[in-house]
Write a structure and sequence with these properties.
Blueprint: H1 6-13, E1 18-22, H2 31-38, E2 46-53, E3 61-66, H3 73-79, E4 85-87, H4 90-97, E5 115-119, E6 127-131, E7 137-142, H5 143-150, E8 153-155
Parallel strand pairs: 3-5, 5-8
Antiparallel strand pairs: 1-7, 2-3, 2-4, 6-7
Length: 158
């Protein structure tokens, strides 16, 4: 039976077309490993990274970047109008999101105070794969649908 959670219920309720792929979520997998497990290119599987601003009280960022790319904090900071950003440590990211690293998804955090950013590389694709809000669940969704739902800003992040 397919996994149903808040992300899939949200997509169903909004009548957004998506597909899911399940894999062993008992351990953490990098986005590149997830790509291998579900049989898609790593440049189409996007990981979600929590980035923090230097100034206290400003919304943290959820930054989606392709699994085969590394985040460039200087480019990202310039793209969002900040002087400096840093990546949240695993425990910090889990505390801020309430989700396990490897299962952090902007779709699961729509009601939370995050600014959502999507690396411009995603604009080269009609659909990308992102976390379904828990380890072991991947969601393929249209880039335009993802951006509309999350109010994501296209940024230079890699």
């Amino acid at each position: 039976m397919p996994i149903k959670n808040n992300v899939t219920r949200l997509l169903d309720a909004r009548k957004i077309v998506y597909t899911t792929a399940e894999y062993d979520g008992s351990t953490f997998h990098s986005a590149e490993e997830v790509a291998q497990l579900i049989g898609v290119p790593a440049d189409q599987v996007y990981k979600t990274i929590v980035a923090l601003r230097e100034e206290k009280g400003k919304k943290p960022l959820l930054v989606m970047v392709a699994g085969n790319r590394e985040i460039d904090l200087k480019k990202l900071a310039a793209s969002v109008g900040e002087k400096k950003l840093h990546i949240a440590k695993h425990d910090e990211a889990e505390q801020l999101t309430g989700l396990q690293v490897g299962g952090i998804s902007a779709l699961a955090l729509l009601a939370k105070p995050f600014e959502v950013c999507l690396d411009r590389s995603a604009l080269d694709f009609e659909h990308i794969h992102i976390s379904g809000g828990q380890r072991g669940l991947d969601v393929q969704i249209g880039v335009k649908d993802l951006m509309a739902l999350t109010k994501a800003k296209a940024v230079e992040a890699t």
